[in-house]
Design a protein that fits this description.
single chain; Nucleotidyltransferase, domain 5; six-stranded mixed sheet; 20% strand
Length: 370
């Protein structure tokens, strides 16, 4: 059996749950990789609430973060086993698992980032070597520590004939510019689903606006949209990264209060979708203006209202989900961390200095042997 089979595990800023994949990086098809199996485990409500609360300082937060790390590790291990079951293979056939962890604080300007995880526990629960803690080495080298997926995007989606951009829309949105024969660049563009998920949960219940149906029932509020677009993050020159540290419910509440606070909830939701589409569109026009094709992955690719907004923002570029190229929109980030684990164990760098701003290429992650 191939020893190029790796698991990848990702839980992102959307706080919905854990995505896991099993990937073969030496498939008989000759492609760069092939997804053999996948699984999604939703966060229990109590864990989701705790992870959201840990985005800010609070009582006994060190012990609470440690407890959350243990709970996450057990979910990560379960997701690896479930993805292997979906692939009809034994966990022991894996070379390793790349487990990103759950980001609760991201402050590269202060020299640190925090991803909750207990990689030793994941290794113990699965019997598989685990590569984790991918971001800190890049930050130690002067980088943002994010985004890390552009190197994988380049390996999987580059085309010598097409200038592509890959846009991942999770809680935060990021893009990767893939010019034929040029330098790969990438950065966070701002909120993806994060704010619209929070607003939907507050007014409708449930973790997200399925297919953007509620947003489609409203109309963007121009004054609110322009006020949000004035946030200094959007005009920063890459490399740059962001997270819930900057874009959170209080950020939204402050903008609503300044705009009078009387917009109808569906109109606010429509405005938040417009914010995501507009900031992605502006970023592509500013930094990847020659691109002709935009591939979209992450949960935002399932939001029909957002996808329609992106088509309008990015015309005449072709906008399509990564599934059009045979890679499910919900698998790309987990696949990226499977690939990064492989690169780490091979002693190859996983970051792109042109993306993160690090002083140079670095081998990422810490290895917890089985």
């Amino acid at each position: 059996m191939s020893r190029e089979r790796y698991a990848g595990v990702m839980s992102g800023t959307s706080l919905d749950g854990v995505d896991a994949v099993v990937a073969d990086f030496a498939p008989a098809s000759g492609r760069a990789c092939e997804t053999l199996g996948a699984a999604f485990l939703p966060f229990p409500e109590a864990l989701r609430d705790e992870l959201a609360a840990l985005q800010a300082s609070g009582a006994d937060e060190l012990a609470r973060a440690a407890d959350a790390s243990v709970a996450l590790a057990d979910l990560y291990a379960g997701a690896i086993r479930a993805a292997c079951a979906d692939a009809r293979m034994d966990v022991a056939a894996l070379s390793a698992a790349g487990v990103h962890g759950q980001t609760v604080r991201h402050r590269p300007e202060r020299g640190w980032t925090i991803q909750l995880n207990d990689a030793a526990r994941v290794a113990e629960r699965t019997g598989v070597a685990v590569v984790a803690d991918f971001r800190r080495r890049d930050i130690a080298a002067g980088g943002e520590g994010a985004p890390l997926v552009p190197a994988f995007h380049a390996a999987l989606f580059s085309d010598p004939r097409v200038h592509r951009v890959v846009v991942n829309i999770g809680g935060i949105a990021n893009l990767t510019d893939l010019p034929p024969g040029g330098v790969v660049r990438g950065f966070d563009t701002g909120p993806g689903n994060l704010l619209s998920d929070l607003w939907h949960a507050q007014h409708r219940g449930g973790p997200y606006d399925a297919e953007g149906a509620w947003a489609a029932s409203g109309q963007p509020v121009p004054s609110l949209l322009e006020a949000m677009l004035a946030d200094p993050f959007f005009s920063l020159v890459p490399p740059k990264s962001t997270g819930r540290d900057r874009f959170h419910s209080s950020w939204l509440d402050e903008h609503l209060a300044r705009s009078g606070g009387n917009a109808a909830p569906p109109d606010v939701q429509a405005t938040l979708v417009a914010l995501t589409a507009r900031t992605i569109g502006r970023a592509i026009r500013a930094h990847a203006s020659a691109s002709t094709e935009v591939l979209v992955c992450g949960g935002g690719a399932r939001n029909a209202t957002l996808m329609r907004a992106l088509v309008q923002e990015l015309a005449p570029r072709r906008v399509a989900p990564t599934s059009d190229l045979g890679v499910a929109v919900g698998h790309v980030e987990a696949l990226a961390f499977a690939w990064l684990a492989r690169e780490t164990l091979a002693g190859r760098p996983g970051n792109l200095p042109a993306v993160t701003g690090a002083k140079g290429a670095r081998v990422l992650g810490a290895v917890h042997h089985a």
